Amino acid sequence: MKKLKRSQRLVDMTQFLLEKPHDLLPLSTFADRYGAAKSSISEDLAIIKEVFEGEGMGELQTLAGAAGGVRYIPRIPTDMALAFVEGLCGQLEQSDRILPGGYLYMSDLLGLPSLMEQAGKIIATAFYGVEIDVVMTVETKGIPLAYATAAQLGLPVVLVRRDHQVTEGSAVSINYVSGSHKSIHTMSLSRRALREKSRVLIVDDFMKAGGTVRGMVDLLGEFNAEVAGVGVLVESGAVETEERLLHDYVSLVKLSEVDSKGRRISAHPGNYFSSLRLG
């Protein structure tokens, strides 16, 4: 790489770090990249660290020693996360989102990369410090959120299929009960997609009674894998506690009411913002 001015180097270093979240990067990586002394690189990183943390972009961790380096951890402050979620609640409360049968139209929001990126960053922040190997979701609408979350964690994504694909080789399939309709469905996962004893973060776009997520949890049992956590974009609050098939999860938005006749939707920040999560 050609010699850069310090201002140019700072810009390039920032971009480099943003593209490699959670990767431990030795100082020699930057010293070699820019043909600069490690002392100069350390000064540059101190500037970037101050900006990252001051602007709520995340943390820049430095580890001393021969095996040390620098690692960028995307995190979002609670006030910024709350402002984002309140804006999302406002969009979800638009009456024209109510579909026949009381369903909620969300596909347009799930198709906005900038919105998914921010939501993924919040979910990643919720599981800061948790050991995770992969992010899992079930096709299809949860895919954008899963990829956004995985990008912030620097992890791969595993997709659970509702119909097994021949191109994925042998697979493990299970039946599960849909909590919202009490009907039986099938989901499958390629044997090559997930290593045994992996720690998995399950991500989904919407949860009512939790039947689909419960199915993914059961499927992970077939791989001797462990659930590291569950994050959902929107949960329905119109479910009795005893009917909920899952209780340990993080939600960004909670729907307390979807009134088809009155064309009224009521959305509030989810349990991510409870006192337990803020502690």
Description:
The protein has helices at 6-18, 27-34, 38-54, 78-92, 107-110, 113-126, 143-153, 211-221, 275-278, and strands at 59-63, 69-73, 98-99, 103-104, 134-138, 157-160, 171-177, 184-190, 199-207, 226-236, 250-259, 264-269. It is α/β, with parallel strands linked by helices and 279 residues long. Strand 9, helix 8 (211-221) and strand 10 (226-236) form a beta-alpha-beta unit. It is globular, with a radius of gyration of 21 Å.
State the main characteristics.
alpha/beta; six-stranded mixed beta sheet; two-stranded antiparallel sheet; 9 helices; 12 strands; 35% helix; 26% strand; globular; disordered C terminus
Strand order of the largest sheet: 6-5-9-10-11-12
Shape descriptor reads globular
Q: Which percent bin holds the helix content?
A: 25-40%
Report low-confidence residues grouped into runs of 5 or more.
275-279
Separate helix tally: 9
Mean pLDDT across the residues is: 91
Q: In sequence order, what are the helices and strands, one letter per element?
A: HHHEEHEEHHEHEEEEHEEEH
- How much of the sequence lies in strands comes to 25-35%
